[in-house]
Task: structure prediction
Amino acid sequence: MLESLEIYRRATTGQICAEKDFDLKRFIPTVRSLVKKYDIEYDPTTPVPSDDDLVERVWQAGRELFLNVGVYCVDTERIIMFDPVELDQALAHAPRPVIVGTGQHSKAIPVRRPESSIPPFFSLGACGAGVTSDDVFMSLTQAYCELPYADAVASPALTHVDGMAIVAGSPLEIEGCVRTIVMTREAARRANRSGLGIGNTMPTAIKSQGHIVGNAAAADQCDMMEIGNIAEFKIDFDNLSKIAYMEGRGRTILGETGPVLGGYAGGPEGCAIAMSGYHFFALLVLRASVQHPFTAHFQTQTCTSREAIWLRSLSLQAITRHSDVPCLESGAYAAGPATEMSLYEAAAMSAPCVVSGGSVESGPTARATHPDYLSPMASLFAAEVGRAVLGLSREDVNAIVLKLLDRYESRLADPPLGQRYQDCYDMASRQPKAEARASYKQARAALVEMGLEFKDPPSYG
Amino acid sequence: MPKAMPDEALTDVVAAFKRADFDSVLELVRIGLDAGVQPDALLNSGLVPGIREVGEMFRRGEVYLPEMMLAAEAWQAGVDVIEPMMAMQLRAEAKGKVVIGTVKGDIHSLGKNIVITLLRTAGFEVIDLGIDVPASKFVSTAIDTHADIVAICALMTTTMPQQKEVIEHLLATDKRRDFFVMIGGASTTKEWATQIKADAHGETAFDAVTLAEGYIRRPHRSSHA
Result:
């Protein structure tokens, strides 16, 4: 497999190209032509596709996209190119297995295929959504760590330090990063799960110095650090610096790959191709041991629309059919805490992910854009649903997702904000209050009515 | 004297936009000119309704950003050919001048670029400062270029404070009232805009155009601060 220094060398010696030309003359036309060449067509009636030929075409198109377009380095304004042998080597020699956590709380992220009966890995938490104070951070994160199906915790991000707003690149970012990981570790200890792995070690960080200092302060060998693309098929020196640090320390990188639905890759067809091609971006450029697919609509920031579910399921199937590198899929729910809608969205993200061969990172509520509007219940429900769909076919899950979409699709444009964690949970006991419990009870009953057989008893009476 | 304008030349240009055949727009403009169509007619009855059609399709979610960006490129290529041929008095004047950028510490460009495309195709002159832009750069560019509007983008909760910083830099000059300041970005809200004394908050890229047009239409538009 290519060395990361070779990626850097290519970033500094590759073909010079203006960024606008990369977008307009290279990336966009190639995606559009591949959609036609491989006859990729969005079908709103099957948000969870089961057409293996279509899945195969998306895989081939993604590979071709990566080979033909390359990766743009915005600092050098050059294109990093790869050849087919290097892609094959990346698939063959990528590091695996990936163990997250230590001691009795360690767990491997399994290699899964579409319709696999192997249980997925669940990284549950706020996934980088903001919280405003240390108190909320501690109670909320402990609540996530206490969730029975959490194989790892995905930390929130701090937005303030001692009442002062964190500014990216400032000393407060450094302090915020150190606090984030120290408090997450402490939250796991308080939950009697000291060895629980952290699924995203540095969500408070924007700049590489925050990532590096925070990780150096308290990250363990068996935590994962999330590093992502900065725009479609683009990277910069700041992210390459994070990667250099993590590789140098022998740490696990969770490679976030997030084509924006409606953005440069276009509609669901182009985004499915891009997401598939991003597998190679994750392996070769981000040096990821786990791919972390994510997509949201460019205007509504919605991850649970019909189109988003389709493109995620399709591209996930394409990747997991061909690669032994696990995928931990992520996404935010549009509705806020203590709403039934957020639970339907959690189900509609988790079920397709599991049946498509992925593992689940779940997930912030309220689009992850409203600080403190976070709900451990939504993550728990995603895990319960993910466990319940094991053994189902893609057709079965498609039928359930169609019913779920009926429940919330019309409200995606203006979703209910719900309540802040500190308002819908008791902060001391970390248990949901009556209104939140009622939403859980109703959503669970609705899923049963849709034909889903839960394997676990209800978490809340 | 040029020949009378054949309607087909204009409808062909509009139709090319509608069917997303952007590569043919420039050629169709040249064919129209060769056929004697008046340049101002090609602009106002061909390129402008064509790009507006794509803009509406984009607003309705029928096409996505690639189509919008390619349409904008085709539109600009057509304008570049036509405008030098037009009498000065007939040339389209920009509705207003917008200085836009993503704040210091933030490297996200997609939302900003969508706003730029929509503003340009709506007739605004846009000065793009790019990403990771220091507050002083927003201020000096707005003053130096006599801009009407300053648009400040930030995606992350930890970069939103830089929007406030830009406004405080503006307030530190005696020029704050010269500019309409609008903010946007995934984590920003109307309440945040009020708190930092911005003039407006755009929830979506389309809002940014509506806000900019609304400001430009105001009779005494420098008294907003």
About this structure: Chain A has a mean pLDDT of 95. DSSP finds 15 helices and 20 strands in chain A.
